[in-house]
Specification:
MetI-like fold; 2 domains; mainly alpha; 83% helix; single chain
């Protein structure tokens, strides 16, 4: 028995040595590069003349496609515009009371009284603030986009389900479609389809299709084998079995895909307005943003929030109706159709008799105190400007600058009141070395490797690290965590950033996203913990989360811009406001779903409340919390492009510059760079999740 224990201990030591040895070599090589290679420019930002012309090649290919296939693409754009124009004309002609009551009736049929009241109050808000016409135009875009995206997503998902060999390619394509910023593919869409509402619709379809594909794949895979076999035994043909048995069984998951597709389409309305604006709410938000009109943009943004919440609640309600435990059934199809016809005739008749209040909302009744809000914000900024500026400067000097350019350059008399001397630098590194040796003495080789890597990152900053150091450290980390496939993917992604000439902008984007994500993890995690322990806190935070997640990303920039002006701090605030929601939601959900049995077992074992939380609830909720971390990173990177409007100089700015020059090559390369960063973070976190299962 003793010999077996000794053999196990020796095997563990050997395994740890094999794992720690690569880190020792990487840390040694990195230290030598950073000490003796600082004068070698190509180690930090390779000159463009030594790099392959990736952007120019992509630009040439896109120009060739545009020149040779315009004859096909432009008629497609005009064809798509026909249903948009027809639906918009029909909805514009109908009285607001007719549209409102029909939507409320559809909401009641799906989810009952609560869903109907949500739809009623949301549409009344859009009407009262004077955005009815713009809201109808936005609704037109979404209502045309949804069937196209749902149909396309269903077909692609079905192909992926039928042909397993397509799935790896399909998953990669979906990752790219959801992580490449929309602005990056606006340029090729413009080149191919021209300018106009139909082009905005095409961009929305591209962005909205992946959720339907993923849910179609998942829904069809979850159909029990015995259900399929029962259909075959009943004499069904493959087609009958698919449409009569498999699709109805997968319907709840398919309707969740419709719900997510709807929300994705609505999130694109502002971006679609850039290339195809036609007097919708997205165009209104964009116009107000350009004029920095906070009050007007908030009212327009809240109109989009209302439409998003209405469509979300309705589509979710119809998805929930397919579950066995559904509480609301609604009317039969015949009675429902008769109800719709009765509402249409009744409201049209009343509106014909009283056109002013019932057909068109009177302008005198519009409630739109946007200017009062602007004045209040101006007074607040004027009264507290010095305090706001002081808070911003302290955070920039103490937190942002060291992470961006490193303590080595950030600590200066102007910012910190002193400078780092050679003695103090040597002392800091000595402390790090001693901490690593102590951790190694206790057999914690991972902690021993973490100390010099983390401090080296803080000391030199993201933009002060040589590219071989970044590739070695992150490549080895990904390899040890996820194996050769993940290691190769992360290393290849970093190599693409290097060879495409966007290394420095990429490091700036990574730095800013890292700071924002850390802030989201700390603050969002704390809020999620509080919400998991208090129903009152949960009910308070839920509508705030809904608003932050459905409010157009552009609108989040305006309050940050008015308070803090342009710069990295303003961009970080906007990123945090958008990316913090998944962390709050997944933390609360994970902690609330810990089984009562596990908690009672901990209590009976004598755990203190502190031990009960950290050793039982938190550990069991960790998989869902890590999904929240994953989504927070993806949301943060997605918001980086929008944040480029307020002064960031990362990949988001590269995309905007490419858009302004109609340079599809530079835009696609920068967008692909952001997608690869997001996908690398996703692969690493997924690998960690697999290890914790």
């Amino acid at each position: 028995m003793r010999n077996m224990a000794l053999a196990n201990a020796v095997a563990t030591v050997r395994r740890d040595v094999r794992s720690a040895l690569p880190w020792l070599l990487v840390i040694l090589i990195s230290g030598l590069v950073m000490m003796f290679g600082r004068e070698i420019e190509w180690l930090f930002d390779p000159p463009a003349k030594y790099l392959p012309p990736i952007s120019a090649t992509v630009e040439a290919v896109m120009s060739w496609i545009a020149d040779n296939f315009n004859w096909l693409m432009r008629p497609m754009s005009q064809l798509v515009e026909v249903p948009m124009s027809g639906l918009r004309a029909a909805l514009d002609w109908l009285p607001w009371t007719t549209v409102t009551l029909i939507v409320v009736f559809v909401a009641w049929q799906g989810g009952g009284r609560t869903t109907a009241l949500t739809a009623l109050f949301g549409l009344i808000y859009v009407t009262v603030v004077g955005y009815w016409e713009e809201g109808i135009n936005t609704l037109t875009l979404v209502l045309v986009c949804i069937p196209i995206a749902v149909g396309l997503g269903f077909v692609i998902g079905l192909l992926g389900f039928r042909f397993r060999s397509l799935r790896p390619f399909l998953n990669t394509l979906l990752d790219l479609m959801q992580t490449v910023p929309a602005f990056a593919y606006l340029i090729p869409i413009l080149l191919l389809f021209g300018f106009g509402p139909a082009v905005g619709l095409i961009a929305s379809v591209i962005f909205s299709t992946p959720p339907m594909v993923r849910n179609t794949l998942l829904g069809l895979r979850l159909v029990p084998t015995e259900v399929r076999e029962s259909g075959t035994m009943s004499g069904c043909t493959p087609r009958q079995r698919f449409w009569w048995i498999e699709v109805p069984s997968a319907l709840p998951q398919l309707l969740i895909g419709v719900n997510q597709t709807t929300m994705a389409a609505l999130s694109m309305v502002v971006i679609a307005a850039i290339i195809g604006g036609f007097d919708d709410i997205g165009w209104e938000v964009l116009t107000r943003l350009r004029k920095a009109q906070f009050g007007q943009s908030i009212f327009a943004g809240m109109a989009i929030v209302c439409l998003a919440i209405i469509l979300d609640r309705i589509t979710r309600a119809y998805a929930m109706r397919q579950l066995p435990m559904a509480s609301h059934v609604g009317l039969s199809l015949g009675k429902f159709a008769a109800g719709l016809l009765a509402i249409l005739c009744f409201t049209l008749g009343l509106a014909w008799m009283f056109p002013e209040p019932l057909w068109n909302w009177p302008e005198a009744w519009v409630f739109y105190p946007a200017e009062a809000i602007n004045s209040a914000v101006d007074r607040f900024v004027a009264a507290n400007g010095l305090l706001i500026e002081a808070i911003k400067n302290q955070f920039v000097f103490i937190v942002l600058l060291p992470i961006k350019i490193g303590l080595f350059r950030a600590v200066a008399p102007f910012t910190w009141g002193f400078s780092l001397t050679a003695t103090s630098i040597a002392l800091l590194w000595t402390v790090v070395a001693v901490a690593s040796m102590v951790a190694l003495g206790y057999g914690r080789w991972r902690l021993a490797a973490l100390f010099p890597v983390a401090f080296g990152l803080l000391f030199f900053g993201f933009t002060g690290l040589a590219w071989p150091v970044v590739m070695l450290v992150f490549g080895l980390f990904a390899f040890q965590l996820g194996g050769p496939r993940v290691g190769l993917f992360v290393t290849s992604s970093l190599l693409f950033l290097l060879l495409s000439g966007i290394w420095q902008p990429a490091m700036i984007s990574v730095y800013l996203c890292t700071v924002a994500v850390i802030f989201c993890l700390l603050v969002g995690g704390l809020i999620g913990i509080l919400a998991s322990t208090s129903d009152t806190m949960s009910s308070i935070i839920r509508p705030i989360n809904d608003t932050l997640q459905t409010l157009p990303q552009f609108v989040l920039l305006i309050p940050a811009l008015m308070l803090f002006r342009v710069g990295d701090f303003t961009a970080m605030i906007a990123i945090v406001a958008y990316a913090i929601v998944p962390m709050i939601r997944y933390t609360e959900q994970g902690l609330r779903q810990v089984s009562r049995t596990a908690i009672e077992a901990g209590i009976s074992s004598g755990c203190t409340p502190f031990q009960l939380f950290w050793q039982i609830r938190f550990k069991l909720a960790m998989p869902q919390i890590l999904i929240g971390v994953n989504q927070t990173i993806l949301f943060g990177l997605n918001m980086l492009v929008i944040a480029a409007l307020v002064g960031t100089t990362g990949l988001g700015q590269q995309i905007y510059l490419a858009l302004s020059k109609a340079d599809s090559g530079a835009g696609i390369v920068a967008g692909l760079g952001m997608a690869l960063i997001a996908m690398s973070a996703d692969r690493i976190l997924q690998a960690y999740l697999r290890r914790t299962d």
